[in-house]
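Sanity check

After download, print the first record. It should look like this:
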Amino acid sequence: MDYRQYRRARRLVRECCNYDNGQCIVLDEGDGCVCVQSISHSLLCRWFRAAVLPLDHQLETALYHRLESRRCSECGALFLPGSNRAKYCRECAARMKRKHATERKRKQRRLCHALEAEKAL
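Expected structure tokens:
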């Protein structure tokens, strides 16, 4: 994990339901126990990997799916493709689908002869 990924993971640690002011509730056995994930440069906490890391899709992809990941053609973010034809991340895919549908319908309407005003009497 590089420094940027480490900083993003540290920010995510605060989202964990077991995190309490720097202490881990799960590891606490009476005396305070520092949250392992907040001081480590690797992914040690199973709860963090299973429940918290999926909140940041780009970080999860960078850490776990390096070989399968791709860059989005629109925004450049890393994403895990669902098929070999995927070009866009989840956020951009919906926007691009809407944009291409609009262009397709405009072309269809332009080529349609039923809407022309050339009816001669």
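If your output differs, re-run the checksum step. Summary of this record's structure: The longest strand covers residues 19-20.
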